[in-house]
Specification:
The protein has 382 residues and is an alpha/beta fold. The protein is built from 14 helices and eight strands. The chain has a single domain, classed as Alpha-Beta Barrel (TIM Barrel), CATH 3.20.20.70. Strands 1-2-3-4-5-6-7-8 form an eight-stranded mixed β-sheet. The termini are close together. The structure holds iron/sulfur cluster and zinc ion. The site of iron/sulfur cluster has 11 residues, from helix 3.
Length: 382
Amino acid sequence: MTGGLLGTDDRAVKIHHLVKAPENTPESIRIRESWDASRPATVYTTPERLPDGTPCTAATVILRTRGCEWWWKSGCTFCGYFNDVRDDVTSEDLHAQWEEAKRRTNDFEDCKMVKVYTSGTFFEDRENPADWQEAVLRETYERGLHLIIEAQAHLCKEEKIRWVAEKHPGCTIAIGLEAYDDNVLRFHCNKGFNTKQWHRAVDNLRKYGLRVKTYLLFKPPFMSEGDAIAQTGKWIRSVAPLSDEISINPMNIQKKTIVDRIHRARQYRPPWLWSLIQLIEDVHDDVQPVSAEKAGTGTRVIVHPTAAGMIRGSHNCGSCDKEAAAAIERYSVSADLREFEGIDCECRTHWRTEIKLDQSLPTPMGIGRDRRAPVADILRAP
Ligand code: SF4
Ligand SMILES: [Zn+2]
């Protein structure tokens, strides 16, 4: 990005063009077109909990789709799903992928839950053909599988939600809200919808008896670590009463995204694991998350640091990462703050200093150790 907040004489570059430019290079297109459209991207099973807390096995099916409409138009600053999509996937291909997923799991043998992820909105007809959506909704319902699908908030229109609820009553719709703040949604995430639209979506989901899962993004780009702790705490408190489950996704850097570029320019560091622990401790008493066992009696708060300990995921100094990440994972199941007792490391002092400086200096993007640009540029928040 050229120019700072204070500006130069250059024309402003639209975030849209920054998102798009490198992803449509011949190389990126070649990679996208090399995928086999008749096979799902990934199929695996994991231990999970049903909405009432009963332990179960869940199958996750990630399909090779045309991808998110919003991405083709503009796209979120952190989303690398486009790396896995093909723009020519047909209804036939999707049916074939679904059959293949069933083959690989032996017809969802021993599974009570299935997560069907389409790198966009499951029930958006321009992304996935309606006949395929219907087949998945019906089949999973007939087999008694609890279904989780994902959607953008503004696409949860009443008519569509009614249709989904008819075909698969009681399923869970996960919405990537990311931030409960319209400015952050617009300028940090380029999300494509606002909080008002999210509220409307939640109203529709509730009206038709569907479960609401809310994803929040911890540390969007162009935000300091200290700010992220303060803001995400507020967002969790605001969305908890309206969500059956909140999943905090600490930023992990996906290839060829805006965040990838600012990370490579050393202008962004993925979150510290200490920040996630701090965040949990800050909100725990207010939100009172329920443990996995007691799911169904309150809101669950799940913090899942993808790629924890890696340079592109949440990390500390390297020597305490495993322990800190494991405690966070345990908390997501037990909702018990005692998971963090006795965990400490020398790097915690560095982290504390960073947060203190973030909160006391006029540096909107933070003063973190990985921001190695010239001090003058940092102060100008380039
Ligand atoms: S709406 Fe979801 S799938 Fe679409 S670009 Fe944003 S994060 Fe990616
Ligand atoms: Zn450490």
